[in-house]
Design goal:
Strands 1-2 form a two-stranded antiparallel sheet. A two-stranded antiparallel sheet has the order 3-4. The protein folds into three domains: 8-240, MFS general substrate transporter like domains (Growth Hormone, Chain: A); 246-317, no CATH class; 328-551, MFS general substrate transporter like domains (Growth Hormone, Chain: A), CATH 1.20.1250.20. The chain starts with a helix and ends in a 13-residue tail after the last helix. It has 16 helices and eight strands. By secondary structure, the protein is mostly helical. Helix content is 63%, strand content 5%. The chain crosses the membrane at residues 74-93, 100-119, 139-158, 188-207, 213-231, 331-348, 368-388, 395-412, 432-454, 475-495, 521-543. Keywords: Membrane, Transmembrane, Transmembrane helix. One of its GO terms (molecular function) is transmembrane transporter activity.
């Protein structure tokens, strides 16, 4: 019996619900099948996002600021829905079923988007000479939004579970498999960047030169094939049982602490409630003591059951559970200071693409699609991944690079506007006699910054979160992307309103960027980046000091990717 058990993985089961056989389940082959669906997701989401602004302006005839906000709201919602996807996976479906269900939703979304670009009634008529272009009506935009937000819903469910299900295929208690898991995690970002690379080159070219319907159809077919591929490995996967959502655990601590806010903490911390075993116990710390009240034992905290009595988790929580919530709270300052990076990132796939569409993009007889300028963005990411090393410093460097990228963008836009003014703007000559390759520095700087920020953030949130909340910490990390995109939409709306009376009445963000001052908007983001970096330095120093003061918790800080 002992020999047989040595071939099983203790915390995983096979597709029939029996203990997973190590020799028949898990490993690199199943993990590779899972990785394929993430590549397809990147191909779809980024292939649509990086070139959507040109479709919204050129075909749907939306103003430049409105087009930018549609894109950033779409991406912001995609990443925000990762929290929903994680909750569904942890509480109900499990990771495998969540991936299949949400991948199917994304397939429907890309199919609907392909249909919306094909049918003439779902887009406004082409612009006529010497006449104002007719903007898309509510029904046409409604169909487009339906398609986009189906894709966003699919993306949210997929991203919350794909990396976790991939690492489920390795047993961290086995040294050989633990090494394989580490390798898988380190290469995960590299492979999704390859998916992005295909999106911004091949797929964007198909959109511009062949047909958007064909391009979006490719996305739908690619995701459908990926679903079939991941289903083919059903018998080979290892499945981890759902243990409930950590969001509920956090809420229980907060609710219990609020209910007992009027009670005094005991003089001896050992009088606080604790029933965790020594191996899983986290020692009490003195920070955020208001949360400790959730662990005060009071009358009515226990309810009887068949074998005795148990605590009501909405009234009484263990010290370990409270400390887990404290650990998540400690992540929030770093979390907040990385949001602005993704606001800068959003400009690369909105206004920077609009800049590119007005500039000379020809190499011989070949004309580079405006959205394909983001290839320099992806190249910077792939190159930077090769030199990524430590934790806090790369995150700081990512913030610095994004600020420099915005400064470079402002300088280039000043030059582009001067050329547009000298020739009378794109209404008299198109494209402008200025090379699109002048945009490379801003794409490269922000792209390199993304590699540092993305991997640095992911490592930080995973290694600094409690073991029971690794999935939650990944979702928390992804919300920085979401809030960064939403902040971009907010800033665009505010700047457009505040500057509406300046620069000839059209403000910084005019409907036609040749008549606005996009350089001032980029400059504003650069200034905000400098301020944000200063706050980050203070927060990082506090976080480092807190690490030294909380060395008793380091046994809980081991790297575990979920």
């Amino acid at each position: 019996m002992e020999g047989k058990m040595s071939w099983t993985v203790a915390d995983a089961v096979n597709y029939k619900g029996f203990p997973a056989d190590r020799s028949k389940t898990g490993g690199w082959v199943p993990a590779a099948l899972i990785l394929g669906i993430e590549i397809s997701e990147r191909l779809s989401t980024m292939g649509i996002a990086v070139n959507l602004v040109t479709y919204l302006g050129g075909t749907m005839h939306l103003p430049s600021s409105t087009s930018a906000n549609v894109v950033t709201d779409f991406l912001g919602t995609s990443f925000l829905l990762c929290l929903l996807g994680g909750f569904v996976a942890d509480s109900f479906l499990g990771r495998f079923k969540t991936i299949v269900v949400f991948a199917s939703i994304q397939t429907l979304g890309t199919g609907a988007l392909a249909l919306s670009t094909k049918l003439p009634n779902l887009r406004p008529p082409s612009c006529q000479p010497n006449k104002d272009c007719k903007e898309a009506n509510g029904f046409q935009m409604g169909i487009l939004y339906l398609a986009l937000y189906l894709i966003a819903l699919g993306t949210g469910g997929l991203k919350s579970s794909v990396s976790g299900f991939g690492t489920d295929q390795f047993d961290e208690k086995d040294e050989a498999e633990k090494t394989q898991m580490s390798y898988f995690f380190n290469r995960f970002f590299f492979f999704i960047s390859l998916g992005t690379l295909m999106a911004v080159t091949v797929l964007v070219y198909v959109q511009d030169e062949i047909s958007r319907t064909v391009a979006y159809g490719i996305c739908s077919i690619s995701m459908f094939i990926s679903i079939l591929v991941i289903l083919s490995g059903t018998k080979r996967y290892r499945y981890k049982k759902s243990t409930g959502s950590p969001i509920v655990s956090i809420l229980q601590v907060i609710v219990a602490a609020i209910k007992k806010r009027g009670m005094d903490l005991p003089y001896d911390e050992n009088l606080l409630h604790e029933n965790s075993t020594d191996g899983l116990r986290i020692r009490h710390t003195n920070q955020f003591r208001c949360l400790d009240k959730a662990a005060i034992v009071a009358e009515g905290d226990f309810v009887k059951n068949g074998s005795g009595s148990v605590s009501n988790p909405w009234k009484l929580c263990t010290v370990t559970r409270v400390e887990e919530v404290k650990m998540m709270v400690r992540l929030l300052p770093i979390w907040a200071t990385t949001i602005l990076f993704w606001t800068a990132y959003a400009q690369m796939i909105t206004f920077s693409v609009q800049q590119a569409s007005t500039m000379e993009r020809s190499i011989g007889s070949f004309r580079i699609p405006a959205g394909s300028l983001t290839v320099f963005f992806v190249i910077a990411i792939l190159l930077t991944c090769a030199i990524y090393d430590t934790l806090i410093i790369p995150m700081a460097l990512g913030l610095i690079l994004s600020t420099l990228g915005m400064a470079a963008a402002a300088a280039v836009e000043m030059k582009r506007l001067s050329v547009a003014k000298s020739v009378g703007g794109t209404t008299t000559i198109n494209p402008l006699p200025i090379s699109v390759f002048m945009l490379i520095p801003q794409f490269f700087l922000v792209g390199a910054g993304e590699a540092f920020i993305y991997t640095g953030q992911l490592d930080f949130f995973i290694t600094r979160s409690p073991k029971s909340m690794k999935t939650m910490s990944t979702g928390l990390f992804l919300t920085t992307l979401s809030l960064g995109f939403f902040m971009s939409s907010f800033l665009v709306s505010v700047v457009k309103k505040v500057t509406a009376g300046s620069h000839g009445g059209e403000g910084w963000l005019a409907d036609d960027i040749d008549h606005g001052r996009l350089d001032c908007f980029y400059g504003l983001l650069a200034i905000l980046g400098v301020i944000n970096f200063g706050v980050y330095v203070v927060v990082a120093a506090w976080n480092k000091k807190d690490d030294k003061a909380s060395s008793a918790m380091e046994m809980e800080m081991e790297v575990e990717v979920v």
